[in-house]
Amino acid sequence: MPCVLLKHGEVFLRGRNRERFEERLRNNLRSALRGIGGSTWIQDARSVTVLGGQVPVEELVERAGKVIGFNSVHPAVRVPSTVDDITSAAVEALAALKAERPGITFAVRARRRDKSFPLTSSRFSAEVGSHIQRALGLPVNLTAPDVELSIEIDRHGSYLSWARHPGQGGLPVGSSGRALALLSGGYDSPVAAYRAMRRGLACDFVHFTGAPYTNASSVYKAYALARELNRYQPAGRLHIIALGRAQKQLAIAGAGKLQVVAQRRLMLRAAGALARDTRAAALVMGDSLGQVASQTLTNMATVDQAAELPVLRPLVGWDKQEIIDEAHRIGTAEISVLPDEDCCNLLAPERVSTRAHVPEVERVERRLEMDELIEELVRSAQCMRPGEEETQDGPAATVSLPAQQEAGRCTAS
Ligand code: ATP
Ligand code: MG
Q: I need a surface site. Which of 1, 65, 67, 184 has the fewest CB within 10 A?
């Protein structure tokens, strides 16, 4: 029976918290499988989760490969744990591979978790290997094989796999709490949100537009970005706040070259107020130290001074190219590159202060009714949940099988 093995990442290092972590990982997997269009089942063993169902394996691999907390994803077949069953499945698998690539070399690596299995791991590896050699005439290469056939032998079933896809790694989303990520249209902030998610933070998003002075293009982008990011976590919400009028008030108050830093402080205040509703314990931003004139240490400190919550900047030490490469890997780059009317370009001064100090920014801010302004911004926020339509529960949801049960007999229908 085809299935997928998901190797747990750092989860298993977590001692006593392990159970809690694994439960979260399982729930996140279940949520990633929603709407896949067929029944699926998951079953847990020590440091590995087995996933199967009436869905093509490639689709299971695609969905599970995005779930943060799994280190690697292995398409596999499950057979009864007998010497004959395993050996014939191994020959069958290699025969199929040989049909595609006639001259391949191979190695068999068996691991016996069930010590009642009649042969030791190395003895069994050798026997299966020579069986394949005799049946198919393929050469063994133990040091650098083209194909590594891995066999994991458990009491209740054995798994054969010969391909490995990298997983996301990291900690299960939610295991470190919730955060609110400030999402602009650029490359940086989506990558920052993803990196926060990789450390176990479930993220909601907030995007500020220049409305009514800019068009809706940046909202479409933020929506598309949040939808892409939600593939890696149980869907977070996206809040949209129109900042245009408040930006204009800052300009009229004479912000001048402090405009950008003053705007960021407004964003953090509004995000902080929003965070009370979303139960976020931190804000996430995409700045990288020195990347642009506004992202100096002085400016960051002045921006943070306006925030009630800790401001996390996962990309603070990243180079632009590293960020762009990661954006391509996680699938946000193609969206970030699209043109938009960004609120930050609205009323941007010709020269941005690289040393905006708190007292001078406060002097400008005192000309505004700050509390009312923030309250109004948050009250007018619009909320959506990007990607949810794709993960609606269809007719069949994922069932969990007890660890000791035969997966084959319990397939949900
Ligand atoms: P990005 O590539 O994420 O747009 P950037 O390099 O353009 O970042 P800035 O424009 O200086 O950097 O913004 C710094 C951070 O401030 C962003 O990474 C983001 O977290 C936040 N931010 C900026 N503009 C917005 C916005 N319109 N809505 C929400 N957050 C924003
Ligand atoms: Mg930007």
A: 1
Instruction: Report the atom number in ligand 1 closest to the C-alpha of 264.
Output: 16
The per-residue pLDDT for 395 is 47
Residue-by-residue DSSP string for 384-400: E-TTGGGG---S--EEE
Positions of CATH 3.30.2130.30 in the chain: 2-168+394-409
Residue indicated by tokens 């030791």? 120
User: Residues lining ligand 1, judged by CB closer than 6 Å?
Assistant: 182-184, 186-189, 207-208, 267, 285-287, 291-292, 294-295, 343-344
The pTM (predicted TM-score) of the whole model is 0.91
* Token pair for 64: 């599970």
CA of 227 to the centre of ligand 1 (A): 18
Quote the pLDDT of residue 313. Answer: 98
- Return phi, psi of residue 189, to 5°: -65, -35
Question: Which residue from 263, 257, 186, 199 is spatially nearest to 225, judged by alpha carbons?
Answer: 186
**Statement: 2-168+394-409 belongs to CATH 2.60.40.10:** no
Is the CB of residue 343 less than 8 Å from the CB of residue 266?
no
